[in-house]
Amino acid sequence: MTLALTDAAPGTRTLPERRGTPMLRVENLRVGFGRGAERTEVVRGVSFELSPGRCLAVVGESGSGKSVTARTLVGLTGRGSHVRADRLELDGADLLGLGERAWRRVRGRRIGMVLQDALVSLDPFRTVGAEIAEPLRLHRWGSRSERAARVLEVLEEVGVPEPGLRARQRSDELSGGLRQRALIASALALDPRLVIADEPTTALDVTVQAQVLDLLAASKRRGTAVLLISHDLSVVARLADEVCVMRDGEVLEHGLTEEVLRRPAHPYTRSLLDAVPSAATRGARLAPSTPGARLRATPAPAPGPTVEERPVLTATDLVKRFRGPDGVERTVVDGVSFELAAGETLGIVGESGSGKTTTARLALALLEPDGGEVLLDGAPWSAASPAERRPRRRRVGVVYQDPLSSFDPRWDVARVLADAAATDLEPPRGPAAVRARSVELLEQVGLGAEHLARHPLRLSGGQRQRVAIARALAPRPDVVVCDEPVSALDVSVQAQVLDLLTDLQRSLGVAYLFISHDLGVIHHLSDRVLVMKDGHVVEEGATEEVLTAPRHEYTRRLLSALPALPGAPGPRREAHDPR
Amino acid sequence: MSAPTTLPTERPDQASPGGGTGEAPRGPEPSGTPRRTSPRAVLTRLVSRVLGAALVLLGAATVVFAVQTLLPGDRATLLLNLQTGEAIERTPEELAPINARFGFDDPVLVQYGSYVGGLLRGDLGTSFQQHEPVTQVIGGQILPTVQLALGALVLAWVLSLITVLATAGRRRWIAGLGSGLEAVAASLPHYWLGVILLVVLAVQAGWFPVMGGTDLAATVLPVLTLAIPLAGFLGQATRDELDRVLEQPFVLSARTRGMGDAAVRVRHALRHAVVPAVTLSGWALGSLLSGAVIAESVFSRPGLGQVLVTAVDSRDLPVVGGVVIFVALVYVVANLLVDLAYTVIDPRRRP
Amino acid sequence: MTTPGSTTTPSTAGPAGPATLTDRARAGFASARPPRLATLLSLAVLGFVAVAALAPGLLAPGDPTAIRLDQALQSPSATHLLGTDQSGRDLYTRVVHGARESLTIGLGATALAMALAVTLGVASGLGGRVTDRVIGGALEVAFAFPVMLLALLLVAVRGPSSATLVIAVGIGSAPGYARMVRGQVLAVRREPYVEAAAALGHPRHRVVLQHVLPNAVRPLLAIATLGVGQSIVWASGLAFLGMGVAPPSPEWGALLEAGRMYVTTAWWLEVVPGLAIVAVAVALTTLGRTLQQRLEGAPS
């Protein structure tokens, strides 16, 4: 367990002696797509070993090659792929030269695979029972009645109550947690010795996420080897014995989880760790160097929250009901009240279905409440007529989770920004003035004039969200409603965008109504927080108070379910000098 | 003529397989208890469907009535001329008994009422030319046409499924060949295809009778004539959807369990992929009846098509109207069946 | 090609929690696809037909109606590439000169259908609930109405001409398009970019004109391309029932109808115009589908 940085490339570590022979051996795995000169290698020389009863996590951001690695291990890399390796062995048997027929005998029986989001990973037309029985049937396991019994048995194993009933339901009839358990059950049905879990908790609420991780841990204790693919370091911390950090198809660092997360050897790993927002990062920068330097050159008026007591947005007793497709009316938002003061950040946190997004749309007056009222600057906002609202809309901006779908697909960045900038400029709005303002906006969010001519499709996820923020800022609003603005982003990009939002608040004094499912993000950013569940506000108050000493049982449950990184080393924040 | 090309891209609604993971807010989390809908909900849905179908029929009947009453030319004159084979002006004395008998002089609303009332009793009026109830004129010709249309629909499904399963999602040139075949098939004019089939397979090869009857041998070529272009359309719709479904995560899931390619296609993907083609089939049955007009004419086959062409030529309006109402009925019933088929394919649509 | 997120379409992300962060390696090679052989062939066919329609003299300098009874019913040869008809007219010349009228019918019918469809579809999608119900009901009835009959009736009233064909085929195909436009309008109206425009304070009519309409109608471009081919096919079918253009015209449907009588003795009279129709329709279908995929996938 010593660092061996002397005779190895930076980032490699010696691993502890292993007991017994590894069941999975991967040496110098290379995967490319395309033919001839067009081939791009997406996995470049990956090596690792995995023993029974252990869990190896492959961690990386989009494009790191982690999922391709996982799929290669079950021979499903896809058409046009080219796989090479010095060694690719399962239980001492070579996997490299397997034909399709031989692969089929391996998949499901010797290697089980769990994909993310069971809603789309289970056939929506078939019952959960049929899906779980499928690997049994394919591998000719037992008789029909034995298979039916095994389905119930596995469902019970993964902690699904009333397995007999659940087996007859389809994935869309189950809650997110049950659904994901059923998916895991289908991978465990034949008791494979290796389970590959590709982002198994990504689309899940924290409480459900915790349950799924416990399940995989139990499986590990029974002697199954688990290969966990994830972008989320805190998920990894909870389950993995070893971690492989990948970027651009290469393994940058490989070691015991504790070691890697506590004392990362590679700068990239360190930046990933630093980028995770949490209670500990409040008030600190997340990204090592945000390309927003131009903005930060202007000194912030005063560091720290500059909250005035003037409320910009006031909501009282908001109620919103929707009629479902079955004709039944449901109350999605029920008695929600809040006050957003100028220059502050109010976080709204909750799991899916808690009504937080509906609350955001009510605040934007894009939905009419069925009860209660929203005031903007003390004047009627939700109760005003559309014509009265229109000129005041520029006071409230909005940033969505998915920036791409919030841009007209026919428009390039210049047009998106010009459209928004025009709402701010006094007529006559000449093209030069519009362009100047657009460039100014881009610079404010750390982009440059060269991005004007680009189509949003040709931007990276982070750049798109920056453009979306620029558009929201164009009319110089007092409030920006941010609906999960960083949820679709990689952790390092998320860090940059969060830093940017903090900077903008300091320099522009804009208030944020910040919607997120991520307690870490909320804790990092918000001054005050609203915890929502089933349309109700269960707890509210100063972020520090609510999230460190929660009074409500639900908040406590949320917090305890939150996977945490092992105690971060004290001095890690000092690694970057504040610029 | 309602270009079928517009339909393949259309899905019945957003609940299409797998794809429904858009931005729409996910409904409230399912409680986990099985959804047992009350019999009342089922009944409500059934009643609303049937009511909708009845409204469509009423709409078609109204159009037919409007055309009959508003078309230029005096109906009584038309009727007399048709009976005698003349084309002359008639005196009021000649016309009076006709007008009295058919109620042509009644207020329009009264005429409309008696027309719709007649329909409800299964009375489509009397043919101007043949002096027989329209139901009789049409009735004798319905069976061969329906046989033709249904045969074509079934054959088109078989042909399209075979091509799609064999070629979709395979190597690029194989998939290209498949979709090329479909594009050609969908572009074949019925009339031309029929004539070519007739000449090559009946006249030259002598495999099939040249002059049409309604027996099996004489039915093969007309059915092929209608089925091949339709197979092209169904194939295009199914192929697009199959390509999409094969990319869905649940298909990958099935493969990771050790399922082979053929089984993945048939057991998982196909069920999802046929949904657009099922939608198309409701429309197709109606359009096949239009196509039958041509096929019957090419192969000198008795049927509704012949009746329709003759009736239009002679302006025998009640017969024309009868055919329209019959086709509308077929369309309405076909779409009720399509609705039913949806719920069989996709259990999520069950009420 | 593998820039992280460069070709990511986040629509596959879970609706609630964080989006998928799976590797997008495959997206890389789906993007840079060279034009397929089929697309190039289609363009070549359409290029030829376009020249034939605009300047038939360039491709076939002869007179399409010149009667040479001494050369009647000759099979294809060096002097008569595609043979001659019963009056000794050169078939190649006739097919080339017929392109204009056939294309005009196809384009005219599609344009008419589109105009009707966009009007109805947009009114239905943007109007109130009552408007939507009424138009939706009318479209259902139109679907239930046998379109062949509509054409027959029109001919009975107006007499056969290419204008009649355009109207018959145009009206006949409008309901299908209209239903699509309506669906598109409803879908686009729910798009976040429409909400984002409203949130910027743009008035409703501006949001509709600037975002909803263009994006709802855009996929129709591809469909219309396919539709032109189908209209030509359908128009030729009507020609057979005596509803087409009068015989001396070299319009393709009329050629088909005229060739029928000689199909056992002079096969080329029937086969050649049919192939012309099929070639154009296949080319338009292929192009339309390519366009459809492009519009769905990539930026313009």
Describe the structure.
The complex is a heterotrimer of chains A (579), B (351) and C (300). By secondary structure, chain A is an alpha/beta fold. Chain A has two domains: 24-274, 3-Layer(aba) Sandwich (Rossmann fold), CATH 3.40.50; 291-408 and 477-572, P-loop containing nucleotide triphosphate hydrolases (Rossmann fold). A six-stranded mixed sheet of chain A has the order 7-8-9-3-10-11, sandwiched between helices. A six-stranded mixed sheet of chain A has the order 17-18-19-14-20-21, sandwiched between helices. In chain A, strands 1, 2, 4, 5 and 6 form a five-stranded antiparallel sheet that branches. Chain B is 70% helix and 0% strand. Chain B contains 13 helices and no strands. Chain B has helices at 39-70, 75-84, 92-102, 108-120, 134-167, 172-187, 190-204, 216-245, 249-256, 261-273, 275-298, 304-314, 317-345. In chain B, α1 packs antiparallel against α13, α5 packs across α8 and α5 crosses α11 (275-298). In chain B, 44% of the residues are buried. Chain C has 300 residues and is mainly α. Chain C has a single domain (81-296), classed as MetI-like (MetI-like fold, Orthogonal Bundle). Helix content of chain C is 69%, strand content 0%. In chain C, α4 runs parallel beside α7 (162-189), α4 (91-126) packs antiparallel against α9 (204-243) and α5 packs across α7 (162-189). The longest helix of chain C is centred in the C-terminal third of the chain and has 40 residues, at 204-243. Classes of the chains: A alpha/beta (579), B mainly alpha (351), C mainly alpha (300). At the B-C interface, α1, α6, α7, α11 and α12 of B face α5, α6, α7, α9 and α11 of C. Chain A: Belongs to the ABC transporter superfamily. Chain A: One of its GO terms (biological process) is peptide transport.
By CATH, the topology of the largest domain in chain A is: Rossmann fold
Name the structural class of chain A: alpha/beta
CATH superfamily of the largest domain in chain A: P-loop containing nucleotide triphosphate hydrolases
Question: Given the helix and strand composition of chain B, which structural class is it?
Answer: mainly alpha
Query: Ranges of chain A with pLDDT <50 over ≥5 residues?
Result: 1-11, 290-307, 568-579
